[in-house]
Amino acid sequence: MSRAGERIATDRPAPAHSAVDAPTALAIEISNLKKSYGLKPVLRNIQLALPQGQRMALLGANGAGKTTLLRILAGLSKAGSGTVCLNGLDSRYELQEIRQQIGFVAHQPYLYEELTVLENLLFFGQLYGVKQARERANALLQRVGMERRAKERIRVLSRGQVQRVAWARALLHSPQILLLDEPDTGLDQDGNDLVAALLAEHSARGGSMLFTTHNLERALAWSDQLVILASGRVVYQHDAATLSLEELQQRYREVVK
Ligand SMILES: Nc1ncnc2c1ncn2[C@@H]1O[C@H](COP(=O)(O)OP(=O)(O)OP(=O)(O)O)[C@@H](O)[C@H]1O
């Protein structure tokens, strides 16, 4: 298997924010990452590298370790050993700076149930030091189709609506890196179209992203690199541009048991 950095397509335009003298700057760099729960190893010696401006899809069966990996990247869980760097910042020492640079959308929305939609966004806006937070929040609510629910409490919204607000929360501080745990779960067709559009906009701004999904077709369509985890190991890695859906399905069947 090739290492990530060797397989990157070169025809993709350089991200707008990349420094001229740092063409190989990495959005995500994971080295020798291990994590156990009790005696049970959940991540085993993970090595991954994602150049800035690129998108990585993380695939694998239930329990393969995808959420655990994302939570470590988001600073919500500690690595057992090894190192994790985001945009060159080491998660052991620079977690606050890293948090400013990532947007996380997960199974849990990380919203306050008793606050309204807008109150939630204003709270997180303050936390992240977002300038003109009210204008930014209103613009994002419009973007995710939730502007009419701005004054409603989170607890009265449907799961898909909460997910849309979670997207607005994640994008509020214009993060350079999106970490998305099954962003396509629980959404209707409109919701999935919205997610695809938000991902495309993030990429067009030069942003990077790592997302998990169980949908191989979307993994291929939305990514530059595909990674399959099995029992906490990277068992497959390939450029999306040179892989067909049939090949991916075949390889997935072979490596995921
Ligand atoms: N807090 C925890 N305590 C103990 N074990 C845990 C904990 N969180 C996860 N695990 C275990 O770690 C393993 C990996 O879980 P993880 O949620 O990372 O898998 P996943 O690939 O995201 O699965 P899914 O596709 O079902 O979301 C599982 O065996 C799970 O039981």
UniProtKB/TrEMBL annotation:
Annotated ABC transporter domain residues: 28-256
PROSITE patterns: ABC_TRANSPORTER_2 (PS50893)
Keyword annotations of the record: ATP-binding, Cytochrome c-type biogenesis, Nucleotide-binding, Transport
GO molecular function terms listed in the Swiss-Prot or TrEMBL record: ATP binding; ATP hydrolysis activity; transmembrane transporter activity
SUPFAM superfamilies to which the protein is assigned, alphabetical: P-loop containing nucleoside triphosphate hydrolases
Pfam families: ABC_tran
GO terms of biological process kind: cytochrome complex assembly
Cited PANTHER family: ABC TRANSPORTER ATP-BINDING PROTEIN (PTHR42711), ABC TRANSPORTER ATP-BINDING PROTEIN NATA (PTHR42711:SF5)
Family note: Belongs to the ABC transporter superfamily.
Listed name of the protein: ABC transporter ATP-binding protein
